[in-house]
Amino acid sequence: MRMPRLLARRPRPAALLTAGLATALLGAAAALGPTADADIPAATPKAHPAATVTVDTADLVAAYNGGWMAGVAALGDGSKPTYPDVVADGSAPGTVAWMDGWTDGQADALGDDNRDGVVDEDESGWDCHTMGNRKCGPTVPAQCLGELDFADLCATVAERPAYAWTDADGTPHSVAAGRELLTRITAVPGTEEFAAALFALDTQWAQHNED
């Protein structure tokens, strides 16, 4: 008995080639991913929140105190401020606090009240016996003892030398030295009368000796 023939068309070679190429291209596209000109949005990096650095106040106080003690120790018996030989991040809060402590510690030890690195005559660290001209203020003349409000002016008058001057009509005048002039004041030092006599002598000197 003969089986019936199935009426089916045999595929042509050209059709088979086209189908094979299409399958191969789809497979390659899947493997390579989207093409450069595909309409796919570009990926953007995810933003990270800004980091906030907090510093414990107790740590800063400890750093300052540590710098203060280190500065005093490094100063020793010296009379000039020194600088630490350390390597650190100068912008770090702890480093800044430590350096402030170093500076203040040495300034306190030296008596450099204004923290400018130099002990001046009006600062607590000034020693008139070893610094400057080594003169510890004006010596109070005996004629000025008891004068408190204008003691400096009295000492200035006492140190002035004798001088001479000529008036408008040509008459010469001579003035004794300051200490001699003070002995001629009958008022008692510390009184208003003595102060007035001091100012009179000072004015007379200025008129004939200062331009």
What's this, in brief?
The chain has helices spanning 13-32, 57-75, 93-110, 151-159, 178-183, 192-209; strands at 163-166, 172-175. With 211 residues, it is mainly alpha-helical. It has a two-stranded antiparallel ribbon.
What descriptors fit this protein?
211 residues; mainly alpha; 2 domains; two-stranded antiparallel ribbon; 6 helices; 2 strands; elongated; disordered N terminus
* Residues in helices, as a percent range: 40-55%
- Overall, the morphology is elongated
Strand order of the largest sheet: 1-2
Provide mean pLDDT, rounded.
79
Number of helices: 6
Strand content: under 5%
Number of strands: 2
List the helices and strands in order.
HHHHEEHH
Helix-strand category: mainly alpha
Could you list the spans in which at least 5 consecutive residues all have pLDDT below 50?
1-11, 13-17, 48-53
Radius of gyration: 49 Å
How far apart are the termini? 156 Å
* Count of discrete structural domains: 2
Largest sheet: 2 strands, antiparallel
Structure description:
The protein has 2 domains: 83 residues, no CATH class; 68 residues, no CATH class. Helices cover 43% and strands 4% of the residues. The protein has 6 helices and 2 strands; from the N terminus they run H-H-H-H-E-E-H-H. The chain has a two-stranded antiparallel ribbon with strand order 1-2. The N and C termini lie far apart (156 Å). The N terminus is likely disordered.
